[in-house]
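User: hey, got a sec? need AAA+ superfamily predicted ATPase folded
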Amino acid sequence: MSKTNHINRIPRAKGIDMAAFYSPKECARKAKHIVFSAENERIIEEFLTILGMKDRFAEHEVPIPNKLVMFGPPGTGKTLTASYVADRLNLPLVLVRLDAIIHSHLGETSTNVRKLFEYARVNPCVLFLDEFDAIARTRESNDEVKEMARVVNTLLQCLDEFEGDSICIAATNLETQLDHAIWRRFDTKMNYAMPDAPSRQLYINKLVGQFEHQANVKHYMCQRLEGCSFADVEQIILKAKRKAIITSSPLHEQLISDAYNEYMPRLLGT
Ligand SMILES: Nc1ncnc2c1ncn2[C@@H]1O[C@H](COP(=O)(O)OP(=O)(O)OP(=O)(O)O)[C@@H](O)[C@H]1O
Ligand SMILES: [Mg+2]
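Assistant: Yep! Here you go:
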């Protein structure tokens, strides 16, 4: 089924054209191979478990969490997690890049933020604010842009009033740039990092799947791809698979090594 068909079935609100919409089914397809660190897996499972026990929490008058912030380096699964949550909750994903909102209409940024939260109030969804630091930078560092302080205040207000069946997820590479007041509004926080060896191995196993490969090549990949993000690992393995297909050979060490050298991953700290 085409992407447009999925998207068109989701109710769209006038005035939030800055958002991209994805159905739970599309999200499930994207997040199929997601790998979490043990800690993040625990956090996300607890978050989802609580959402599945709303009545019990209401009985005890304990508010349920509905705001999640994720931070960490590029290509480690933040955006992917938003898809994962949307799939697990069977809610559409409404994805907004906050940097895009600001750059296009500075004067209307606050209005746009309000419209987004108003949409999420009326239509149950996972409202995903990507590149969150674009708006939520500390107010001090933005005194040259007065508008930004106003936007941060709007955001604070929207987060405080956020309730109902929607979930708000924010992601940033630069958590140190986030305004403290905003940071505090998020009840759940997830720290993303480059994969360690066991996570890399798990991801490699998932990506290689049934693809014909030489014995030991997965172990070699795990060592060779040390320091790479999940996104890098994925791109390098895809490149190697293409090479394997055009040369009618199974995946082997040389193909991985060539793919790595051609892809030239930027390793953290280099
Ligand atoms: N933890 C992960 N598990 C499985 N695949 C991953 C993971 N992280 C990244 N990927 C792969 O890399 C792609 C890009 O990841 P994603 O967009 O989630 O990164 P990000 O952390 O949001 O990066 P950025 O900070 O650049 O936005 C994903 O679509 C997926 O294919
Ligand atoms: Mg992202």
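Quick note: The chain is about 50% helix and 10% strand. Let me know if you need anything else on AAA+ superfamily predicted ATPase.
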